[in-house]
Amino acid sequence: MAKDIFKNLKDKNKIYKNLYDGYWEESKSGKYTEIFSPVDNNIMGKIQSMNKDDIDKAIMNSKDAQLLWQEVPVNRRSDILNRVADILYEKAEELAEMLTMEIAKDRKSSIAEIQRSADYIRFTADAAKSLEGETIPGDSFPGTKKNKISLVTRVPLGVVLAISPFNYPVNLSVSKVAPALMAGNSVVLKPPTQGAISALYLAEVFNMAGLPKGVLNTITGRGSEIGDYSVTHKEVDFINFTGSTEVGRHISSITTMKPLLLELGGKDAAIVLEDADLDITVDNIVSGAYSYSGQRCTAVKRVLVMESVADVLAEKLKDKISKLKVGDPREEGVVITPLINKKSADFVMSLMEDADKKGAKLLVGGKREGNLVYPTLYDNVTLDMRLAWEEPFGPILPIIRIKSIDEAINIANESDYGLQSSVFTKDIDKAFYIASKLEVGTVQINNKPERGPDHFPFLGVKSSGMGIQGIRYSIEAMSRPKAVVFNLNNVE
Ligand code: NAP
Ligand code: G3H
């Protein structure tokens, strides 16, 4: 039985197979990757390191399944997705427990990720029902008569390859899979290696809900080994990728004539003006920068504060950050948890070393135990420091002091990234002026950067991405207009 795949979740020798044509199938490659928990370093099980034959098989099966799925009425697709959401709600505790152990996400955020995913699916199932085409009369264009009418509907693209990152293995899989399915595509889901068990569980939820076989298949293996082969596969019609700018850029460089949606890294700035409510600002900056230990694309990754309020802001930030609970993600109230792996912790420490060497002032943190990096705040960060420009993906925040609004805008825009920015001020005119100048997908006024609510458009510019997510936008991105032009002979 397919659903047995998730029995004995605590069995360390368990091999997590892949969903293929409605069943959990073992790869013939005979190769596996062990998944260790970043929480206690214990092994959680093994996923399969698939080979090219496995990937061909999965993609070809999805291609066949898509031809049938696109014929399924939208209201029926919607029923299936609503069932997926119901099951996710029921299983939220169990799945959250797995997520916590697999990616060291604190318990509260893990549950929130699952519930948000269920809500996302429900909203998508409804939104797709009201997605309409249009009729366009020909005679509005010069020289065209009334006898020409274009009937424009939306059709699926085919097989969508969905590639998700470790920091939201469930939610950022759902945000690709659900809109792709509602648009009538089939999906091959390649989850992150660390996070794969949680994402495979999600795939089983779709399976349990009665998604027809082959409409969702999964492939696993290191992106560095199977990634290039998968993204360049000729039967993949669309790639929906979330991850680092480095990998996104690489995918873009090796795929030709293949539509891509890329959600990549960020270096979101919080710009703080003299008149900002500093308590609201501090609450937002701290939760924005340190939730899930800073491992969010939309984390606040630099503070640009007016010199005149910088001392007060720095003191308030230091005070709040010192109180953040650090440790085991299973414990109540813990915010700062071990980073995903040693490489990430080493990287954050290298940013600190550089900042120390160049004279930044450490206000709090700067300490590491294994892969647990304590929440760290630096003041007087200058533009020659790596911390001013690089995405740490860890619990570390630089304060850069500025003298004018235009200086803040210039520094913010000098970044290669362009995901979001926040502006903290009570002056609506200044807020709009700054917002109009910032080269980002979204500007938040008096709030931290954040992706949700999930029906808002979510996009990055420059090195932060390509294409638009957000429920309706994602459905549109994974479908295309199809026009049938009526040429009426008896009408002038
Ligand atoms: P990553 O290393 O780029 O990996 C992302 C996904 O790509 C994983 O599934 C990975 O598989 C796969 N992959 C690796 N090499 C590949 C290749 N050559 N071809 C195809 N797929 C390949 O990113 P991450 O460390 O998981 O996530 C952190 C990054 O994602 C940060 O930079 C963050 O800002 C960004 N992010 C952006 C958004 C956004 O919405 N803008 C959201 C979340 C995260 P393996 O795990 O097997 O390597
Ligand atoms: O990590 C990237 C996510 O898309 C950010 O989502 O702002 O809800 O944490 P979030």
Indicate the topology:
Elements: E1 15-16, E2 18-20, E3 23-25, E4 32-36, E5 43-48, H1 52-69, H2 74-90, H3 92-103, H4 107-127, E6 134-137, E7 148-156, E8 159-163, H5 171-182, E9 186-190, H6 196-208, E10 216-218, H7 223-231, E11 238-242, H8 245-254, E12 260-263, E13 268-272, H9 278-290, E14 300-306, H10 307-322, H11 342-357, E15 361-364, E16 368-369, E17 372-373, E18 376-379, E19 396-402, H12 405-414, E20 417-418, E21 420-424, H13 428-437, E22 442-445, E23 461-462, E24 465-466, H14 471-477, E25 479-487
Parallel strand pairs: 1-5, 8-9, 8-11, 9-10, 11-12, 13-14, 13-21, 14-19, 18-19, 21-22
Antiparallel strand pairs: 2-3, 4-5, 6-7, 7-25, 12-24, 15-18, 16-17, 20-23
Helix pairs in contact: 2-4, 2-6, 3-4, 3-6, 4-5, 5-14, 9-10
Bound molecules: NADP nicotinamide-adenine-dinucleotide phosphate and glyceraldehyde-3-phosphate.
Please report the number of helical segments. 14
Distance between the termini: 63 Å
The main β sheet shows up as: 7 strands, mixed
**Overall geometry:** globular
In order across it, which strands form the biggest sheet?
Answer: 15-18-19-14-13-21-22
Task: Briefly note the structural class of the backbone.
Answer: alpha/beta
Query: Are there runs of 5+ residues with pLDDT below 50, and where?
Result: none
**Cofactors, ions and other ligands in the entry:** NADP nicotinamide-adenine-dinucleotide phosphate, glyceraldehyde-3-phosphate
Approximate helicity band:
25-40%
Say how many strands there are: 25
